[in-house]
Amino acid sequence: MDKNLKSDFCIVIDYKKDSENPSRVFEAMASLIKAFQDFDNDLIKTIDNKIETVLLLEDIEISSLKTWLANVLRGVPDEAVKGLNWKKAVGHYLVKAKHIVVKKLEGKTIITDAKVIEDIQYEIVEEAKNTDVKLLPNYTPLQLPKLLENIDKINKSLEYLSPEDKATMKSEFGDATFNLELSITPDELEDLVTRETVSNETIMILKVRKPDYLGNTMWDFKHGSRSVPAKISHEEWLKDFQSRKIDIRPGDSIRAKVKTEVKYGHDFEVIGYNYEVLEVQEVLQEKGDNQSKLPFEGSV
What we know:
Blueprint: E1 9-14, H1 23-47, E2 52-61, E3 65-74, H2 86-104, H3 114-130, H4 144-157, E4 166-171, E5 174-177, H5 186-192, E6 196-210, E7 218-223, E8 226-232, H6 235-242, E9 253-264, E10 270-284, E11 293-295
Parallel strand pairs: 8-10
Antiparallel strand pairs: 1-3, 1-4, 2-3, 4-5, 6-7, 6-9, 7-8, 9-10, 10-11
Helix pairs in contact: 1-4, 2-3
């Protein structure tokens, strides 16, 4: 690192010269910077919501695309930290947290165990201790769902790049190579932060917002003010619906046996719902005062 620069870290993207789709390099760089800025903002909120952080562009080199960046911090009164050089401590902490994330994900293609995320969370907390950031009055660790959300943003930024490209984060802590082979699906994201799933079956009346006319995918229902995306697994009913023996349109409702799964995170906060319509018992067509009920033949 050039000692004349005030930068805290550098993102380097090595690319094959004369390769197609050159915009991918700049799109990846812009997306990575945005992902790091979002990560910094979430980390700052765990320290004190009065602190603000901004990434400043220090320099760009184009042999490889190198972007030098610096954190600028402001917002916490000095008297709140009793002499701690909080700007230096927090700046150091933010860079090391990003380095930890990139370094810990090197060489992985998938994440199937929440322990990987928990280890990253633990190392970030340890760095907060080492830099005295935990001395700041309002410090709390970044929770697993928010940490995983930031990891996903960083990972998605790399999708612009081709397999021949390489991206690296350089800082005083050494080089950490971004993992272009890591894949995280939305279902995996939710499963990684789920501690417990509670399920039950109940009879519900669901208002149809968007039926699935073409295949066996998700319907969009409404229950009260809540949107309820649900798969209908009642095959006989679906067969009749798709062959037009049953007429149901947006605004109509169904009375159905519904399986509901509630997913709880490691802090026992609700992180998601899954719905499955097991049996459609009745179609309730919306026709004002002349509303008719169309029971499904064979319903219980």
